UniProtKB/TrEMBL annotation, chain A:
Domain of life from the UniProt record: Bacteria
Record organism: Bhargavaea ullalensis
Transmembrane regions listed in the UniProt entry: 6-27, 81-98, 105-124, 130-151, 184-202, 232-255, 267-292, 312-334
Ion transport in keyword set: no
Name listed for the protein in its UniProt record: Simple sugar transport system permease protein
Pfam family, one: BPD_transp_2
Topology versus the membrane: Multi-pass membrane protein
Automatic annotation (TrEMBL), chain B:
MF-aspect GO terms: ATP binding
Keywords: ATP-binding, Nucleotide-binding, Sugar transport, Transport
Domain ABC transporter: from-to ranges: 8-243, 260-504
Designated name of the protein: Simple sugar transport system ATP-binding protein
Any Pfam family: ABC_tran
Matches recorded under CDD domains: ABC_Carb_Monos_I (cd03216), ABC_Carb_Monos_II (cd03215)
PROSITE patterns in the record: ABC_TRANSPORTER_1, ABC_TRANSPORTER_2
TrEMBL record, chain D:
Membrane topology: Multi-pass membrane protein
Keywords in alphabetical order: Cell membrane, Membrane, Sugar transport, Transmembrane, Transmembrane helix, Transport
Organism: Bhargavaea ullalensis
UniProt-recorded name of the protein: Simple sugar transport system permease protein
Compartment(s): Cell membrane
InterPro entries, per database record: ABC_transp_permease (IPR001851)
Segments crossing the lipid bilayer: 6-27, 39-60, 66-86, 98-120, 154-173, 203-222, 258-277, 283-302
Length: 344, 522, 343, 319
């Protein structure tokens, strides 16, 4: 009960403080929040786009959460996502194959690229004990510039890749038609499958058991016969694969190609918040992604329908995360309230 | 007798953790200049009571008087000001600090705003000399022995001028030599007019040094007795609530085939210093071989090399005739080796895992706990419940985090895990460290059972008592080699002590004779 | 070129009559890219064009008048374009080549709305594509730099390498070489539009190696170029360091006490193009499916008026070149040498 | 460029690039040494960059040529106050320190941009009139080789940063406060038993980190961009975090790492005039600084472990 109450109260508190900010700066919070609501749930188009936005957040959140659960801090989801995006688009555009092969292949390419990008930090951590945070931060930049250069090379000096073939696309006329031409694509199903996969991997398999054990206590795990290095690398690689899939969602679903980028997508960094909002559990990640994705997407409608500046929405989102992080204080408050009630 | 002057009175102290009552109206009165022992089973609430006195916990009820005055000890600062110092059960030392830094922390001498380490170190050296503590002020904690760390803890309290000292299980991880030293130190402190509360599970120590004993059981005060009017047996039964057998009953050994064979083994430590230097050892089915030795003579490296946790430099290790030198830990365990590790928190347990997972930590990948890489958690639960039941692990259930169990119960779970795998060789390293007499008795019985069912047991212990009581053969390790092997019945603690100090049996005999002569002369 | 917005007002006469009915009421909006309407670059210029058009036609900000939506990321382009189309704006601008695919998709769905995209070509019947001949303006910047350099070394700092920025580079180099082929042009790209520290380091390197005029086409990275120049200027008022600004008149950015390091700026008049297209759409002359290229001749690009440091005789020379380009006598290359598209 | 010219160019550029990172990384060192993970450095830097510019713009008339320096102090104070949010969340409210940090990062940028819009009615501030100046150090600059490398075109802020690194080293390793700070990050319970107020020390450390990151941000904006906008600080905070880890949580190490980053960045800029690097296509050249860092880590830095209690809130009586 309290586990549900805490995030709900955090969200309410975040919105409340956001409302105060709006009032103070001369905007109408009621109008603002109606716009936010409509931006998320207003019509089938909004719902479709909200779900589309949630999709990569789930995967990025899984990537971060998986690493955390195995004792690693993968701050490189952003870079892994970028290479995953590129690889998926490359396979999606460069080959002519029937859909049953092409789409899975392109998705796999994304996952593989992300995994590869995470392999190096994993290897350095396993073999040389080099802190994964710093390597993954560096790998983010390397991904950004290398992918930009690859796009340039591939497109003969252009700024974007070819479009993926229809056979590699996650989009569908059906989804578009029921959501009034939103870009909702089948990626959400894949993302949810990955949630199940992560849960299964961590909670059901011997591999997951080992990964968690190594994350908690390397010495005891080694004593129990587990291979420490292998598990660290594997954890990074799986985490990177999730991140790569998030990129594949963008490449094969939302965009259908890739542009050279001036900076990061932000999804990878937001994935940290998503994962931690969800307490690093697979189910929690869904919650985090829904919260984050909805706010992010719905926020677009606040300047649109209520002329409230984007920045205020960002403030609200940050506050919501802040309050969720402060869950302990909310718990304390709740228990005090319930004690008082008992006393009466 | 002087008028009864209490420096500390803890009256009807009550401490609750949630719904659990850890201290249920316990009263403890400490006289000036006495050593007052506090005795109780693992988890009885001793540390809790002392943490209340030291200001780390706030009691729910009762009152504390210091030198007759009622006080509220709201945090350790207050305790320090009242002259109360505590040596904690789990050392409160910052590992990568030097001895001096640890000692002055919170009370630092300065010169022009910066730390005056040299002055502090001088003072530490002086104190150390005054009490015969022999501590290097500039050594890093992570580099010094447990005994030395213990003395640093004591210095911490002395440095602050504590008049009332609490020792929470100071001897649990000390070697016999170090314990002797500690006792000397305690006596010195008392002579200086200080008062001591001593927690220990070793009844002999209580008999040796304490003036009075307060016994608690399951959070309740049982009473206070005058040591000289009591006996170990009485204390034990007061504490446990039943009769305790001290000398473990066991029949003679019937050793058969060799299980463990270590030949000319050379192992280096993490700093690449040779610690095991051409060691030979053999353990057969149906016998318990005890390794006696002073800490640091290569015991840890030897076990780590056998179990695959450390690479050997040369020599060989084989189990049942099969060479396992430099095999990975998994291959070693699968060749029939069970291992109760020396450090249960570092190697023995994943503290954040449920105790059930920990019980499955060696077998989770095998049938019936898993099939085809898929773990059957129901099977793990069943298995864990069975071990918990069978080995009397006191816990709320298999899902409780290992962290929340007391050390004794953690240890029982580990023993259950290792024994239940039915290994041909069971290596038990310091298996009873920090445990109460009841638990020790239980563990010793299990080791003997293993032997009697035809397994080989290798016991490493710093406690001569334990080695003498449990082993069938005692291999004395000194400077990385087994210098002699003796039978418990054919030796005594004195001879063993001399052997452990590196003397040959002949020398030992001579020295013993001499000593005996001396005694006569005196 | 500056006052072009004003004369539209006089021509606007049909507005009041159709006022009551929504369909006949003309409204216009734009979607920015991540820069926002005040990025001192083309978003700002586009918004300026829309605002001026709106004000000139007595329109109000908001539905049925003129408005904009800002994108926080590229995933927002489609929802934003879509939102504006759904709010029944008659004409929706997309600013920036990054919006190409998004525009293509939305234009094919929202067939009743007219769209226009800046810096890219979208092949839809209801979409007008707007390109600029940045190379022509940059050519003049190159000429100015070549005529003014004392060290015979000039520099170019680009942001990300793409076709648009390549046009800047190409024109600039061509302009310099047209005056004096012996002059060195030091070309470097920062790889991003928002790395001021890299821009500054590049400028530092160039000035250190004797370059005295740097033309930047690098957005926020160009801030660093200005910082370096200004720093040198304030350390040594006699330092011969200049910057040529880009997109809008960056004279103010060059101020160092009483002096200024901005030699001139290459203007990219997105506002002119936006107003032009809006006007045509309002008059029912929307060039859907067409691509309009705005060069010197169309007032789409130019050098800023702020050329304080450029002496009169140099000005005349620049004007000469300008006329030659306008007349077609000089054709400015679109791609830098060796950077022609391979396909 | 000749080899010497390259050196003359790279040395000062590396240090100038490093200065904001040094300050911010030092902030990270204080915070993490006390056991509070500070991924919020980015947001704290943003705040500093914004306040630095804002103050500079509004008080130029009052403080004249001293403005940039006073602006550093203003940025320091505001970021320190802002960092209290992170402190309250992660120390008192036992929040996950990484989440709290992420929230602060988002909040810092959003608040700074919102205020920019409110005050300037546009997406970025005006340009400041007076930036942090650089100057040649008399006499020293004439020393052959070293002079032009280290003593020409020196920013006051760079000197300050290097001095700050040594001061931080002194404070952390030579003063009672430093000893307590480190003890709290290694073994808070031990510190508690010695009568040290664990949470108080951690609050102080986090606020110091806010103050230092604020200075770092204000140095960046007052030397590199001279205005504030959405992209002014983008990733510097994370680079500072990386510098802190690279430097093994040691002030001097962090400084060295920051200078190394500066060196790598400068190398990518002068790359086209260096024989081997010249061959790397520009696109890939942009990745060079980051690849160099990874190589350096793998090559000669190796293992780094942070303070033991880092990331864990201290809860009295738990173990
Ligand atoms: N921090 C805590 N939270 C909850 N319960 C606790 C805590 N500390 C102790 N307890 C409870 O109090 C009881 C007494 O613990 P305590 O540490 O005082 O035992 P002890 O007598 O010192 O045991 P040992 O001999 O093993 O050191 C435990 O059984 C446990 O259930
Ligand atoms: N954080 C906690 N939560 C719940 N119970 C706790 C906690 N900390 C300690 N305990 C309880 O305290 C009791 C005794 O703990 P204590 O550390 O004194 O045991 P111990 O036998 O001395 O262990 P060790 O071998 O580690 O010294 C245990 O029974 C355990 O249940
Ligand atoms: Mg205890
Ligand atoms: Mg104990």
């Amino acid at each position: 009960m309290i586990n549900i109450l805490v995030p709900v109260i955090s969200v309410i508190l975040g919105l409340l403080v956001g409302a105060i900010v709006m009032v103070v700066s001369g905007y109408d919070p009621v109008k603002g929040y109606i716009a936010l609501w409509n931006g998320i749930f207003g019509d089938s188009y909004a719902i479709g786009e909200t779900i589309r936005q949630i999709t990569p957040y789930i995967l990025a959140g899984l990537a971060v959460a998986f690493a955390f659960r195995t004792g690693l801090f993968n701050i490189g989801v952003e870079g892994q996502l970028i290479v995953g995006w590129f690889a998926a688009v490359y396979v999606g555009a460069a080959f002519d194959l029937p859909k049953v092969i092409h789409l899975p292949l392109a998705i796999l390419a994304g996952a593989a690229a992300g995994a590869l990008w995470a392999f190096l930090p994993g290897l350095l951590k396993a073999k040389m004990k080099i802190h994964e945070v710093i390597v993954t931060i560096m790998m983010n930049y390397v991904a950004l510039y290398v992918v930009n250069a690859l796009i340039k090379t591939w497109s003969g000096g252009g700024d974007k890749t070819e479009r993926i073939k229809e056979t590699a696309s996650l989009r569908s006329d059906f989804l578009a038609s029921i959501t009034d031409y939103s870009r909702l694509h089948y990626g959400i199903i894949l993302a949810l499958l990955m949630v199940v996969l992560m849960w299964f991997l961590l909670e059901k398999t011997t591999t997951g058991f080992e990964l968690k054990a190594v994350g908690f206590n390397e010495n005891a795990s080694e004593y129990a016969g587990m291979k420490i290095g292998k598990n660290i690398i594997l954890a990074m690689v799986i985490s990177g694969a999730f991140a790569g899939l998030a990129g594949a969602m963008e490449g094969l679903g939302t965009f259908g190609n890739m542009y050279t980028r001036g900076g990061f997508t932000g999804i990878g960094f937001d994935g940290i918040a998503v994962a931690l909002l969800g307490a690093n559990t697979p189910l929690g990640v869904i919650f985090g992604a829904v919260l984050f994705g909805s706010l992010k997407y719905g926020a677009l409608n606040m300047p649109n329908a209520a002329q409230i500046p984007e920045e205020i929405v960002q403030i609200v989102i940050a506050l919501v995360i802040f309050f969720v992080a402060c869950g302990y204080a909310i718990r304390l408050l709740l228990s005090k309230i319930s004690k008082k009630k008992e006393a009466k | 007798m002087k008028p009864l002057e209490y420096v500390i009175e803890m009256l009807n102290i009550r401490k609750e953790f949630g719904n659990f009552v850890a201290n249920d109206n316990i009263t403890l009165q400490l006289r000036k200049g006495e050593i007052h022992a506090l005795l109780g089973e693992n988890g009885a609430g001793k540390s809790t009571l002392m943490n209340v006195l030291f200001g780390l916990y706030q009691p729910e009820g009762g009152e504390i008087r210091v030198r007759g005055k009622k006080v509220a000890i709201t945090d350790p600062n207050v305790a320090n000001e009242l002259g109360i110092g505590m040596v904690h059960q789990h050392f409160m030392l910052v590992e990568n600090f030097t001895v001096t830094e640890n000692i002055i922390l919170g009370n630092e001498p300065t010169k022009g705003g910066s730390l005056n380490i040299s002055a502090a170190a001088k003072k530490v050296a002086e104190l150390s000399k005054q009490y015969g503590l022999n501590v290097d002020p500039y050594a890093k904690i992570e580099d010094i022995s447990v005994g030395m760390q213990q003395r640093v803890e004591i210095l911490k309290t002395l440095y602050r001028g504590a008049e009332i000292l609490i020792f929470d299980e100071p001897t649990a991880s000390l070697t016999p030599q170090e314990i002797m030293e500690l006792i000397t130190i305690m006596r010195k402190l008392i002579k200086e007019g200080k008062s001591i509360i001593l927690i220990t599970h070793k009844l002999q120590e209580i008999m040796d040094v304490s003036d009075r004993v307060t016994v608690i059981r399951k959070g309740k005060g049982i009473g206070t007795v005058i040591t000289s009017e009591s006996s170990p047996e009485e204390l034990a039964s007061l504490m446990v609530g039943r009769q305790v057998i001290f000398k473990t009953e066991k029949g003679p050994a019937h050793p058969t085939d060799e299980v463990l064979a270590v030949k000319d083994l050379v192992v280096t430590d993490s700093r690449n210093v040779e610690k095991v230097k051409g060691l030979n050892l053999s353990v057969r089915r149906g016998e318990i071989v005890g390794i006696a030795g002073i800490d640091g003579n290569g015991q840890s490296e030897l076990i780590e090399a056998i179990t695959g946790l450390r690479k050997t430099k040369s020599g060989s290790v084989s189990i049942n005739g099969k060479d396992i030198t430099n095999k990975r830990p998994r291959q070693v365990t699968e060749s029939g080796v069970g291992h109760i590790p020396q450090d249960r928190h570092k190697h023995g347990l994943v503290l954040d895992f449920p105790i059930g997972y920990n019980i499955a930590l060696q077998t989770y990948y095998q049938k019936p706990l898993s099939k085809g890489g898929i773990i059957d958690y129901k099977a793990i639960d069943r298995f864990a419940e069975q071990i918990i039941e069978q080995y009397d692990v006191r816990t709320q259930g298999a899902h409780e985090p290992a962290r929340a169990l007391s050390g004794g119960n953690q240890q029982k779970a580990i023993i259950g895990r290792e024994v239940e795998r039915d290994p041909d060789l069971l290596i038990a390293a310091l298996p009873t460290r920090g445990l109460d007499v009841g638990a020790i008795e239980f563990i010793h019985r299990r080791l003997i059972e293993q032997r009697d069912s035809g397994k080989a047991v290798l016991l490493i212990s710093f406690e001569l008592d334990e080695v003498m009581n449990v082993s069938d053969r005692i291999a004395v390790i000194y400077d990385g080699a087994i210098i002699d092997t003796v039978k418990p019945l054919e030796t005594d603690e004195q001879e063993l002590g001399l052997l452990m100090a590196g003397h040959s049996r002949k020398e030992a005999a001579a020295m013993q004779a001499e000593e005996g002569d001396d005694k006569h002369v005196q | 070129a500056c006052g072009s917005g004003n004369d539209d007002a006089s021509k606007d006469n049909g507005k009041k009559e159709g006022g009551g009915e929504k369909t006949s009421e003309f409204s216009v909006a734009m979607v920015t890219d991540v820069g926002g309407i005040d990025d001192k670059s083309f978003n700002q210029a586009a918004w300026k064009g829309i605002k001026e058009f709106g004000e000139a036609n007595d329109m109000e900000k908001g539905d049925g008048g003129y408005d904009y939506l800002q994108s926080a990321g590229e995933e927002d382009y489609i929802p934003n374009l879509n939102a504006l189309a759904r709010r029944d704006f008659s004409l929706v601008f997309g600013v920036g080549f990054m919006m190409q695919d998004a525009m293509d998709e939305i234009a094919s769905q929202q067939k009743d709305t007219e769209f226009a995209i800046i810096d890219a070509v979208v092949d839809q019947p209801n979409t007008a594509s707007i390109l600029f001949k940045e190379q022509e303006g940059s050519y003049l910047a190159g000429v100015a730099a070549a005529l003014m350099t004392e060290s015979k070394k000039v520099g170019f700092v680009g942001g990300m390498e793409n076709e648009v920025i390549h046009r800047f580079e190409s024109g600039f180099v061509a302009g310099v070489k047209a005056v004096d082929p012996e002059i060195d042009v030091d070309v470097q790209y920062a790889g991003a539009f928002d790395k001021a520290e890299t821009g500054k380091t590049m400028a530092n390197r160039m000035y250190s190696s004797g370059v005295d005029i740097i033309f930047h086409a690098a957005g926020g990275t160009g801030n660093g170029v200005f910082s370096e120049a200004k720093e040198r200027k304030s350390a040594d008022p006699d330092a011969n360091v200049w910057v040529i600004g880009v997109d809008s008149d960056q004279y103010d950015e060059g101020a160092v006490g009483d002096t200024n390091v901005t030699l001139t700026s290459m203007l990219k008049r997105v506002d002119v193009a936006v107003e032009d297209i809006a006007k045509r759409a309002k008059e029912g002359d929307f060039p859907g499916g067409e691509t309009h290229v705005y060069g010197l001749d169309e007032d789409g690009v130019d050098l800023a008026d702020s050329r304080g440091a450029i002496p009169e005789e140099v000005m005349t020379k620049i004007e000469d070149y300008k006329e030659k380009i306008k007349s077609g006598e000089i054709e400015v290359p679109e791609y830098p040498e060796g950077k022609e598209p391979k396909k | 460029m000749s080899f010497l010219e390259i050196l003359y160019f790279m040395a000062p550029v590396s240090i100038a690039y490093a200065a904001p990172l040094i300050f911010t990384a030092l902030g990270g060192v204080f915070s993490e040494r006390s056991g509070v993970v500070n991924i919020a450095l980015e947001g704290l830097m943003v705040m500093g960059a914004f306040i630095g510019i804002l103050f500079n713009l509004f008080f130029y008339d009052t403080f004249g040529s001293w403005t940039p320096w006073v602006a550093l102090i203003a940025a320091m104070i505001v970021s320190a106050v802002f960092s209290l949010l992170h402190a309250v969340a992660s120390i008192t409210f036992r929040a996950d320190q990484v989440v709290s940090g992420v929230a602060i990062n988002m909040l810092g940028l959003a608040v700074a941009l919102f205020l920019t819009k409110m005050i300037f009615d546009k997406g970025q501030t005006d340009f400041i009139k007076k930036a942090i100046p650089n100057f040649n150090i008399p006499v020293l600059q004439d020393i052959p080789v070293i002079g032009p490398m280290l003593f020409k075109g020196v920013y006051g802020s760079s000197i300050l940063a290097i001095v700050a690194a040594f001061v931080a080293w002194y404070v952390i390793f030579k003063t009672p406060f430093g000893l307590r700070l480190r003890s709290v990050g290694e073994h808070p319970m031990a510190a508690d038993t010695m009568g040290i107020h664990v949470n108080r020390i951690r609050y102080i450390a986090v606020v110091i980190s806010g103050a230092l990151a604020g200075i770092g941000g204000a140095i960046y904006s007052q030397t590199m961009t001279r205005d504030f906008g959405h992209a002014t600080i983008n990733g510097q905070g994370f680079m500072a975090l990386a510098a802190m880890i690279f430097g093994k949580w040691h002030p001097i190490g962090a400084m060295g790492a920051a200078i190394f980053f500066g060196f790598a960045q400068a190398l990518a800029v002068v790359g086209p005039s260096i024989p081997i690097i010249k061959e790397i296509p520009t696109g890939y050249l942009h990745a060079l600084p980051y690849i160099l860092t990874i190589l350096a880590l793998a090559g000669f830095i190796g293992k780094a472990t942070g303070p033991k209690a880092s990331g864990k809130p201290y809860i009295k009586g738990s173990r």
